[in-house]
Write a structure and sequence with these properties.
This protein is α/β, with parallel strands linked by helices. Helices cover 47% and strands 15% of the residues. Its cofactor is pyridoxal 5'-phosphate.
């Protein structure tokens, strides 16, 4: 069942005291390049550097006091690990974080800095899930999925809710697509609070499971996802996919060179640090300029947690 307008509004009120209302930036030069008016919602300026703080806070706030006393657990290679750790710390809740052994050390250090207790696992989804299940069994902590949890999805949608409050006449909102939490949450906000506005996803061509899922009507997966957009290597889930199927009419796939070019352009012209995943929806806009010509476009810049020692340009 698709969440209601009231669900979206209540999530926005709930998370507001715990997150930044991030700025929206524009650029005449980028508008000229795109042939459209583009409004960038800067979730790279969010607490812990990504939109995922919103979903993590909303999910923990929906737990009972008894559940909170036992802690929360998730598995994540990076941004949601940091988000849940910081959200839990803000609410005096223990956070158990399962991270693959090959997760970037900069992200592991950040999780520790936010008070998350890391358990390393083999770098496969099965291994991550197994470790998380073991921690739940041993501690009684509540498992919170990074993207396939309704309260997480509603929390992620609050970025687009804020964007539409300040720019209610947007015609399209573009987001990256990884696990599906951001695009599903965005689509809910756009559906209820946009005026003749649609949500479109951007996805790496080498990790195009969501694109294929929309075509086939069932959740598809990737055997490998060798994309620079490391935040988008995950698959859709059974909670977010029905929302995406109903409310997201299109996903545009972009190749690695297009992602890197878009990322470089945003660094150069907006003078802000974004991670590769954030560049994907902008790359989609650049790729299909004619589709968006003369429209008012919102783009969720999902995060800025980039490893400065391994920049792609």
């Amino acid at each position: 069942m698709i969440p209601s307008k009231k669900d979206v509004q209540e999530a926005s009120v709930r998370v507001a005291p715990y997150v930044h209302q991030t700025p929206v930036v524009t650029s005449h030069l980028l508008d000229a390049i795109c042939g459209a008016s583009v409004y960038f919602k800067c979730e790279n300026f969010q607490k812990m550097g990504a939109f995922k703080m919103r979903g993590a806070v909303n999910a923990i706030l929906q737990l009972s006091n008894e559940e909170r006393s036992r802690g929360v657990v998730t598995h994540s290679s990076g941004n949601f690990a940091q988000a849940l750790s910081l959200a839990a710390k803000s609410l005096s809740v223990k956070a158990y974080i399962v991270m693959p052994s090959n997760a970037p050390s900069v992200k592991k250090e950040a999780v520790k800095g936010y008070g998350g207790m890391i358990t390393e696992s083999a770098p496969t989804l099965a291994a991550r899930e197994q470790e998380a299940a073991r921690i739940v069994a041993e501690t009684g902590a509540t498992f919170i999925h990074p993207s396939n949890n309704l309260n997480v999805i509603l929390g992620q949608g609050t970025a687009a809710f804020e964007l539409l409050k300040t720019h209610p006449d947007l015609e399209v909102v573009l987001t990256p697509v990884g696990g599906g939490g951001l695009v599903a949450g965005t689509a809910l906000s756009v559906h209820y609070f946009g005026k003749n506005c649609i949500t479109i996803g951007g996805e790496p061509s080498v990790a195009d499971d969501a694109f294929r899922s929309l075509q086939s009507g069932v959740i598809e997966t990737n055997k490998t996802a060798p994309t620079i957009a490391d935040g988008l290597r995950t698959n859709l889930g059974d909670v977010n996919f029905p929302i995406i199927k109903e409310l997201v009419p299109k996903i545009i796939c972009v190749d690695e060179t297009e992602i890197i070019a878009a990322m470089k352009l945003l660094w150069e012209r907006l003078k802000i640090v974004i991670e590769p995943s954030s560049a994907v929806p902008f790359a989609a806009l650049l790729k299909e300029k004619e589709r968006f010509r003369n429209k008012k476009i919102g783009i969720i810049l999902s995060g800025g947690n980039v490893d400065l020692l391994h920049l792609p340009f």
